[in-house]
Amino acid sequence: MREDIINPKISEFHFILGFATEDYDQEGKGTGYFKRTWNYDYFSPDKVRELKKKYGNVKVIISIGGRHTDSSQYPFNPAEKELWSDQAIESLKEVIADYDGEKDECGCNNVIDGIEINYEEIKCTDTDFAHYIGKVIKELKKLVPSIKVVSIAPSDLVRPHYKRLYQEYHDYINWVDYQFYDQKVSSKDEFVNLFRELSNEYQGKLLAGFSTDPNDAGKISREVFLEGCSELIHRKLLPGIFVWDANDSAVPRSNEKPFLLEEKAQNLLTGSD
């Protein structure tokens, strides 16, 4: 677990565990039964708890859904919609309970602080997506006391679905991790204008997202992204930045130092760059 990427000057550093993915039936429809897919030994409850004790600004988030790639697909496509929501709530409570167990010597038991919704392919109407995902968000916030933070991760291809979800459940959603790297953005001005357009939809909760995954390369350059973020910070429009993903950042393709983007982004946000 690379702790050296955490800047103590950042007010909140969200450490996202990805993913809690659901099982699918033979027809490729979701059952709502979620299980963790991250390395449990590497990110065990004890190790994550120690990380939080060492860095008071760290919040740990479980990302729900999965990355949509040519080789792996995790669509939102419930087999039975009402049953899906009920099963999702119960199975996600179990995933969270694996971490939020008995209190340790410091009296801390809220290892998991929140959830993120990250479905990149959606096979239903925006109305259904908002209703059934919204129900899961609302119930988990009510039933699991440690869940204080909820974020959603829209992209251009599923923008209408997440827009409807936010419109109907904005009181339960804290942050919007928009995947700017999933669409072509060629210049700083284009990036800034897109951010301002999206900010109107998400009421000041919008974060700028960048990917270090080689599969996402070519749509927005690191230079354009950082220049755009700098401009937005100067205008006091950017509350935060998120980066996907730590595995690729840890082993960059070129001769650059690991986690260079994460370091530069945090320096921008703290005025250290």
Poorly predicted tracts of residues: none
- Shape summary: globular
Measured between the Cα atoms of the first and last residue, the distance is: 25 Å
Give the strand line-up of the largest sheet: 2-1-3-4-5-6-7-8
The biggest beta sheet is recorded as: 8 strands, mixed
Keywords summarizing the entry:
273 residues; alpha/beta
What does this structure look like?
The chain is of the alpha/beta class and about 270 residues long. The protein is about 35% helix and about 20% strand. It has an eight-stranded mixed β-sheet with strand order 2-1-3-4-5-6-7-8. Strand 3 (about 60-65), helix 2 and strand 4 (about 115-120) form a beta-alpha-beta unit. The longest helix is centred in the middle third of the chain and has 18 residues, at about 125-145. The chain starts with 12 loop residues before the first strand and ends with a helix.
Summary, kept brief:
The chain is an alpha/beta fold.
Topology of this structure?
Blueprint lengths: L12 E12 L5 E7 L8 H10 L3 E9 L14 H17 L16 E6 L6 H18 L5 E4 L6 H11 L5 E4 L9 H15 L3 E6 L10 H13 L6 E4 L1 H5 L9 H11 L3
Parallel strand pairs: 1-3, 3-4, 4-5, 5-6, 6-7, 7-8
Antiparallel strand pairs: 1-2
Helix pairs in contact: 2-3, 3-4, 5-6, 6-8
